[in-house]
Amino acid sequence: MSSRATALQPVTAGVVGTVTGFFGSVAVLLAGLTAAGATAEQAASGLAALCVANGALSIAVSLRLKIPVCFAWSTPGAALLVAAHPDSFGTAVGAFMLAGLLGVVTGVVPAFARWIDRIPAALSGGLLAGVLLPFCLAPVREAVVTPWTVLPLVLVWLMLSRIAPRAAGPVVIIAAVVVTVLQGAAGSALAPVPRLVAPALDPVGVIALGVPLYLVTMAGQQLPGIAVLTANGYRPPTRVALIASGAVSALVAPLGAVQLNLAAISGAIMIGPDAGEDRSRRWISGVASGCTYFVLAGIAGVVAGLVGDTPPALVEAAAGLALIGAFVGAISSGVARPDTRVAAAVTFLVVGSGIAVAGIGSAFWGLLVGGLALALLTRRASPR
User: Fold this and answer.
1) Which of 55, 173, 228, 359 has CA 20 to 30 A from 183's CA?
2) In a domain, 368, yes or no
3) Are the beta carbons of 352 and 134 closer than 8 angstroms?
4) Per-residue pLDDT at 4
């Protein structure tokens, strides 16, 4: 097989995974920035800055390590902003910087990085499956609400899954994006001009938002991102990823950018079998992802104007179809060992429930409760 042919699949996976992650969460990001006090122009600036930062990180790390290391913005962090309602956008910017610096500390202190690397497969698999569950349920929900647009996508996905399984996900995603753009109500396009925002000198407000932002990003994105790499047979560069994403997050925060992290949901497309059978060449998908982000940065203002805070439901439904394979893989990884299956199920159920306690989402609590169940049940099952 020619090198061009072997490169086509990871390139396609990188492009499709990035487009899926972008359109599947951009509405949440824009709603979070707006709730935090950002103007429309500042939100467009933050979106463009995140695209450039994610693109540069994905290309640099994937090229350097020759494994598919892909980055994204913190969707749980953006959702947290909607509920937190900080006093000002300057306070939110300060919290973005603090969360990034905490990520750097986590990567620099070896004990923290080793602890993250040693999370059992029962927990990482259950966590990833729980994170993927709402997306995989999206086609079911949307098929009831808008059957005439979603059901044809489901039919196309089923047919392609039978005759050309590798093309199923890319085709439905591209089709969903096209239909969404054609059916969407056009707003006012915004120029993605950098808008600097000074962090507020409000230690209490910054800490009150920055620490939960760090926690939900670590539990809801970084750990699932590590789980995706591990589940696909890669040794995750945990310290490098944490330090790089944390440092860049702190750097671009004044442009209105929320925290960066390893790609989890979209990473399942870019790192898994969809990126090709030859695992040694899947790093190409990380480079393709970075290049795609640069293109998306150029249209960030247009997207901010068109999408606004309206969820792209059809794209989310298509993403759910494309992620069913990754969901099955996560479940299989979590329940592989009979003695840890209950802990994996507990983790999955708590994460998939979508609960939020004390401003912290279900991913963190699922990891905590699942870890407790794992410790208790493993001890009970140990030989006398």
Assistant:
1) 55
2) no
3) yes
4) 56
